Amino acid sequence: MSTDRVVLVTGGNRGIGRAIAERFVAAGYKTAVTARSGEGPAGTLTVRADVTDAASLDAAFREVEQQLGTVEIVIANAGITKDTLLLRMTEDDFDSVVSTNLGGTFRVVKRASKGMLRAKWGRVVLISSVVGLYGSAGQINYSSSKAALVGFARSLTRELGGRGITANVVAPGFIETDMTAELPEDTQAEYRRNIPAGRFATADEVAGVVVWLASDDAAYISGAVIPVDGGLGMGH
């Protein structure tokens, strides 16, 4: 496996993004993370960026390019939730989630694609969610934004697949993060009952799949949706 590749993980300061960055560092990649606040894990370059702001992303990419080199692997992970039922959901609840989760992916991948096209090599991995295709009450904004990533990756594959660039989606199920830890215990137990594996995933289990998709072993996989959900979605 080539380890001189440069990776950028958006939202790499916590949760799944942080675990992904840690795995790339351990595998020897030059790894940068974007964060609005906080720092990425040891061994990473942290750059400030807001994925809803193209200018801030451009500045972040320039900083990574100057310090590490051209970004050849981009992991679009940054995301937010504003959960509420449809009739209570405001325009802003919907627009801000879509602008971050889907629009942020568009801005990051568009900026990264320039360097990948020059290099004639690239890996794009979009972090979706089991609820993108499974659905979830109270998450119309979030599940819509995550489902849209499938069409994004498949269209990108058709555009850039002949240039040595792959684009894939990883759809995690319930992961042990700060977000799930805040759920009431009876809610967590109900979720576990629906998961054939009987447990939540660790963030590292998601990270391992992402790092594999970026490797030479996955060179002929593109436009795929890989669930890491313990069997919850069953391919949706």
Q: What would you note in describing this structure?
A:
- With 236 residues, the chain is α/β, with parallel strands linked by helices.
- It has one domain: NAD(P)-binding Rossmann-like Domain (Rossmann fold), CATH 3.40.50.
- Helix content is 44%, strand content 16%.
- It is built from eight helices and seven strands.
- The protein has helices spanning 15-26, 54-67, 91-119, 131-134, 140-160, 178-181, 185-194, 203-213; strands spanning 6-10, 30-35, 45-48, 73-76, 122-127, 165-172, 225-228.
- The protein has a seven-stranded parallel sheet, sandwiched between helices.
- 44% of the residues are buried.
- The mean pLDDT is 95.
The helix tally amounts to 8
Q: What general form does the structure show?
A: globular
Number of domains: 1
CATH-level-4 superfamily name = NAD(P)-binding Rossmann-like Domain
* Side-by-side strand order of the widest sheet: 3-2-1-4-5-6-7
Helix content: 40-55%
Low-confidence stretches: none
CATH topology: Rossmann fold
Mean pLDDT: 95
User: How big a fraction of the residues is strand?
Assistant: 15-25%
The helix/strand order is EHEEHEHEHHEHHHE
CATH class: Alpha Beta
**Derived structural class:** alpha/beta
CATH architecture: 3-Layer(aba) Sandwich
Question: How is the biggest beta sheet arranged?
Answer: 7 strands, parallel
Termini distance? 32 Å
Rg from C-alpha positions?
Answer: 17 Å
Care to count the β-strands? Answer: 7
